[in-house]
Amino acid sequence: MNIDVSPSSISNSLLNRDAFLTGLLNQVSASEKSGWVQQIKNDAVKWVRHSVIPNTRDEEWRFTDLSPLKEVSFNVGTIHELSLPDDFALPEVAHRLVFVNGVFAANLSDTENLPAGLKVGNLDVLDDDVAQEYLAQPFYFAQDKSEVTRDVFTALNTVGLNDVAVVWVGKNVVVENPIHLLFISVAGESAIISQPRCLVIAESNSQVSLIEEYVTGIGEYLTGKMPVPQEEQVYFNNSVTEIWVNENAQVNHNRIVLESNAAFHISKTAVTQARYSRYTCNTVTIGGKISRHNLEILQTGEQTETTLNGLTVIGDKQLADTHSAISLNHPHGVSKQLHKCIIGDRAHGVFNGKIFVPKPAQLTDAAQLNRNLLLSSKARVDTKPQLEITADNVKCAHGATVSQLEDDEIFYLQSRGIDETDARKLLVNAFAAEIINLIPVSSLREKLLKTVVALTSK
Q1: How far is the C-alpha of 391 from the C-alpha of 383, rounded, in Å?
Q2: Which of 15, 90, 334, 447 has the fewest CB atoms nearer than 10 Å to its CB?
Q3: The overall pTM is greater than 0.85
Q4: For the segment 130-148, what is each residue's pLDDT rounded down to a tens digit?
């Protein structure tokens, strides 16, 4: 069955439901692909046409008001010619993929001298049968596949599916150095929408480390144009990352978001773990007017290990929302999660973490902790760690803390000759460093620590 995706058909079906979504859909559905990829796009259009942008009446979005997003008119980002700044390139990384406004920039990427069994590039590096098996597959929580975790932003990303950052690691292949996936947003006089897409496949017994990084382009690196100042760039990043960790494979995933203060960032990370697999995600989110990360883990075999570490740093009137869901459907699974927030000024942090442990998941060991540091009396956090357990032989725990800098800690440092300002910097830096120090690239760790100190010292 063919689906009409012309702008007129989209507008007629959506206009009375959600005019903003109609505009986005008209923008991102212009490009066409061939064969099975176009069928995936068509199916996504059909789903979006019956959807609306979520609002605070939806339980999963009740603390995240997207009204400021809907006030902006977005256009698809144009292609810019960039020279890669030195501080964007990581010296410890051997291979790099660069996307500018969601478009693959081959001239800035480095995919030379790949070891045997490793494919890094756009979608065309994969055989069609492999790509069809993994790309844009429905993501199920329930074992009977009755509950599909779809959302309008993921479907919208699929509608605009064009360039895809692909990392494929063959069976028994160990990749020694991290692979850098760099997504640069460059806004001009008008606001833009970019829709980055990542597909990572780790075949059985393989190991790989990834740096997935989102940054804002800097004006002087553009050829012939000077956009608005970096901190005022208005754009919308709607990203989706799919990671498949096959049997006994190991993926170390480091996700860095450094957005402009006026940017919107909504993302989905969907991870499928086969038996005996190990997945680690270290996430650092800094900046953005509104940001939201949906992190979903599906266990498809026994004895998996899942480690999630997160840090959010926001100030001014920014809002950052992290929603995670871990579905442990098989026995002997181990899951550890620590998410931290540093919230200043009038900013608003949100954390909602869910762990599902149904009856078959006996002998599961799961722990979840959310720690929040408020730097201002007007800073706000809404936190909700959740456990849903029906198995009867498990070890599970969850908790949350909200605190400010302790006066006695500051006094102790002052008694050692450190002034109050530097004492506060040291305490905030120590709070953030627990997460940042887990990132396996020293130059990136150093940059992030400096950024946190600069932002929290204002």
Answers
A1: 25
A2: 15
A3: yes
A4: 999 999 886 554 444 444 4
